[in-house]
Amino acid sequence: MSGSFDLKKSDKTYTYADYLNWPDDERLELINGVPYLLAPSPSRQHQEVVMALSATLYQALRNHPCRVYTAPLDVRLANNQDEQEAHIINVVQPDIVVVCDPAKLDDRGVKGAPDLIIEVTSPSTATNDYIHKRKLYEQHGVKEYWIVHPIDHIVMVYLLHDQGQYEGPGFYSKEDEVPVRIIPGVSIKLEEIFSEKTDQ
After folding, report:
1. Is Nuclease set as a keyword in this record (predicted)?
2. Which of the four pLDDT bands, split at 50, 70 and 90, describes residue 41?
C-alpha cells in the first residue's frame, strides 16, 4: 500500500488491524493505540552501533536457544492473553530484540515480550525511548531494556524487578563492559561497539 498516513486525522485508538493497512513507504509504531512515525533514515552512527551490537550478540548466541533480531521486525504486545490479534494496540519495531522463547516467534515477527530490547536513541526518538517505550516494556514484562546513545557513548540499562518494575537505570560508558543479565556469562565490551569508525 502506498500514500501518506495522516497522524492527526483522527483521535481514534488504532489497532494492529489498522497497522497492517498503513502505507508501506512509512515506518510507524503503535503505542497504546497512538501511531508514532519512525525516523525514515537513521544516521550512519546509529546504523554502525546497531550492526556492532547485533553482530556481537549473534556470535554470543550461536550455541544458545535465544535469538537476536534487528529492525524492521514487528513486536506485538497484547494487553492480555485473551486479546485478539487484530485488537492489539501496541506494535513496536525496536532496533534490536533478543527472544529466548521460540513460541513467541511467528512469520509476522514476535508476539509477546522479548527478553531483551535495545533502542539506539536519537533526538527524534528520545521521548519515545525514555518515556513511552520504557513504560510499555515495563508493563509487558521485558526483562532487560537498554537505551544506547551512539554519540555520547553511553548505555543505560533497566532491569525488571521481581515486583514488575524497572530498577535503575545503570549507566555504562565506552570503557565499560556491560553484562547481558538475561544470558549469564555473556557481556559486551563497549569499546568494541563505540569504535573509532562510528565517530568518523
Report:
1. yes
2. confident
